[in-house]
Structures are given as structure tokens and as C-alpha cells.
Amino acid sequence: MAFLLHRLRLPCLRATCSSAHPVKVSLRPSPQTAINRSVLPAVGHITLRTTQPSCRDFHTSPRRSALPPVAWVVIRAVAQIGSIIGGRTLRKRWQNLSDHEKKGVKTHLWKNKWFVGTVGSAFVLAVIIDLATHFQETPITHRKRYIAFTEEQLKQIVDFEFKMIMEDVKDNVVPATNAVYGLLVKVAQRIVDNNQDIDLLQRQKWTLIVVDSPEENAFVLPTGQIFVYTGIMKSVKTESQLAFMLSHELAHVILNHTAEKISTCQLIDKMIILLLAMLWFFIPTDGIAVITQAFFKKVVDLMLHLPYSRALETEADEVGLQLVAKACYDVRQSSVFWNVMALQSELPGQEGQIPEWLSTHPNHENRASRLDELIPEAIELRNKCKCLRLPDKDPRDEVAMLRQMAKAAVQPSAS
């Protein structure tokens, strides 16, 4: 799984600009895209329609990942239970055999070693073919990854997830006249309009849904629904920070992280089903097998699922930074956003951050540090797009000063 976990010095910040002309900030929609404010106004949807033809730790990602197809949920549960029962049954039968009978089984297997080897080789070959035929390359970052779903299958999964989310939030969706909409539409529109070279951003019909909730959350479904919870506005201090937050979530969609994550989880589940049968066969007692299985699950989470999830979040941060650079926002605010979140988590009464190795997301400081490494390239890309010059005052300096003051405040005074 190393190919899924590596963190590249991404080439995305060398992308071309969408326009050869300076980009100006305007409260009005760009001529390339029309905003239809009459779409479902009663429930507060605003749809961004492009004119091109269609061909508690703070996380800015969904609380739930998109659910796998119901069929796979059932098959996975049955297969895991079956592997446990099968492995345990074989172990019990093996333990009840006499030494002579065990010797006879080993002799039989040895006599049929070519058949056993052929079956094993066929299984390995099937796995290799499955992997080889389902590898795709991510747009922008050009990373190889395993995708087991077609676009239509993914749409069915996400449509199901969308219905579940709307069922949860339907009573809290604010009307289209809400003041937050104007800012969100302007920012989303500006990002889309100034990234014309990204085909998905132009083909997709984007729908904005604002939820009145103190929860600090925002996410974008692969089918184009942008969910923003009003609680997040307390954490976003500038328009550039809001743009980075939205761009991060749009990057997940551009990179097709939902399909990738579901596919990878299913691939891991298939391996676990086989390993569970082996575990329950070789572990001598049921009690030890239960403990070993629980330990094995935790190891899989810590060594595969969590690092993989953090790698996807880092990739979305890096691509999101490119999107805001081409939209002529202050890219330095991306680092400020996560540094401020880190400072807030350290305030008295806050729970603080859990250790990164136990989290699906990188910690705030590491995200800020990674973005700081990429900001010089982002500024260069911004200049190539003929954006207006950034203010000389770097907003990161103020955050650094606040951090020094915070450290000084907690140090015991010399007496």
C-alpha cells in the first residue's frame, strides 16, 4: 500500500492560468457563469450553472464517508462472519484429528501440491488482474490509485448519501436570502471561473446548501452539492480563508477521493476476510483469537486506514492551494487558517487535538507547515495569472507573534 501513502512534491502548482488577463475581485458573477437564484429558493439552494456544455477536532470533511452499496455491506458482513466460522471450524476439526489422521491430511496435500499451487496461483493472478485493470491516475497530481467503481455506480452511492444528509438537515437549511449566501456564492463562483482548465469544475452543476448549525463543518459531494454549516463562519476570518476551505473540499471532488477511498476500503476488507480465516485457524483458542482479531483491526486502522486518510487530506490541501492561487486569493491565509485553529485548540477549556497518528486528518500545525512549504510556488503561480500584488504585510507574521505571546503566557513566571 506504499504507493497510496507517499506524499509527493506535487507538480500541481505549475499549472497554467485560466486567463491571460488580470483577475479582478467583483461582487457580481463572472460572465462565464450564471448564478440562478430561483432554484429551490424555499429550501435555500443556489445553483452555479456553467455555460460550457456538459460532456472535537475540527475537520472540513464529511462526518460520514459515503456508504458502500448495500449489497457490499451485506456481503462483507456475511463473508467476515463466514471466514471466522470457517477458520474456527477447521481448527476444531484439525485439533480433533489423531496424529495419524493429521499425517494423512499432510500427505494428501503434498500429493496434490500442483493442484493446490495452481489454485493459489490463480487466486494471486486474479488479484493482480483486478488491480491492473482498475488503476487510474489522479488529475493534476498524476498519482496512481485503485478505483473499483464506475461513475454511475459512484453516483448511486452518493445519491443515497445525499438523501441521508438532507433528511438530517432539512429543517435547518437556511433560505436563499440569508446573508451568508452572497459571500459563499461569490467565492465559489470566483474559484470555478478562474480554474477553467479543470474540466470537472466546468462540467459539474454545483449546488450550494447552507445549514444553520453551530457545527464547524463543510464538505462537497462528488455529485456537486456544496454543504456549508454556519458554525464554520466563526473559524473563517477572511474571504481568502473561506476560499481555501471551499477549494480544499472541491479538490476532494476533483481528485475523486470518495471513489478512491471506498475502493481502497473494499480492497482492504477483501484481504481482511482471508486473513481472518487464517487467524481463527492458527490461533489455538477462541479467547486468544478474539483478542488477536481486535488487535489486528487496530493495527489495520493505524497502519493503513488512518495514514491513507491523512495522505488524501494533504493532497486536497495542496490542490486546493492551487485553486485559490489561480483565483487570485491571498494564498498565505491558508497557513494562517490552520495556525489559528491550532491556537484555538490550545485555549483553556478546549479539548485540544488528538495525536495525529490516531486521527484521519493531519494535525493543524503540520497542515500549516506543509502549506508554508508550498506557498512560494503558489505565489509564483498567482503572479503568472497576473493577479494583483499581495500586500507586503504577511498575515503569517501576526499569527507567529500571537503564538509567541501564547507560549509566554503559559510559561511559569520567574519568582
From TrEMBL:
Its cofactor is Zn(2+). It holds the Pfam family Peptidase_M48. The keyword Cell division does not apply. The keyword Metal-binding applies. Residues 199-374 form the Peptidase M48 domain. GO terms for cellular component: mitochondrial inner membrane. One of its GO terms (biological process) is protein quality control for misfolded or incompletely synthesized proteins. Belongs to the peptidase M48 family. This is Metalloendopeptidase OMA1, mitochondrial. It comes from Capitella teleta.
